[in-house]
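Entry for the shared binder. Reason: the reviewer on the internal report wants the predicted structure included alongside the sequence.
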Amino acid sequence: ITLPNGKWSVQVSIVAGESSGANLQCWIRSGLSTSSSTFVNADAVTSSLVSGYKASGYFAMIIGTIVINNTSGSDKTYYFWAGQPGGVTGTYHLVSFGTGLWGENSIVAYPLN
């Protein structure tokens, strides 16, 4: 997502599916980064993470809000990262994370005064 200079409330709603077939339960962390190659966000006023719990079954909802303060004076691009699921041993694959496959996926930014 590319945001102009200013403070923004970025609301995230992402479906996370997994393909292990093991009905694993885990905590999935994700968030916005100012870098396309490493997870770092110096512009986050709140935590730069949004998370969700994947209980039994194949899907979880990642829902949350990140407040960003872009003070660069120009438009800045933020990259959405899916983190390592917590509490999982063995092989685990997130499938179609953040893609247009599911209609629930959205990242929306609202300006804050």
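Summary line for the report: The radius of gyration is 15 Å.
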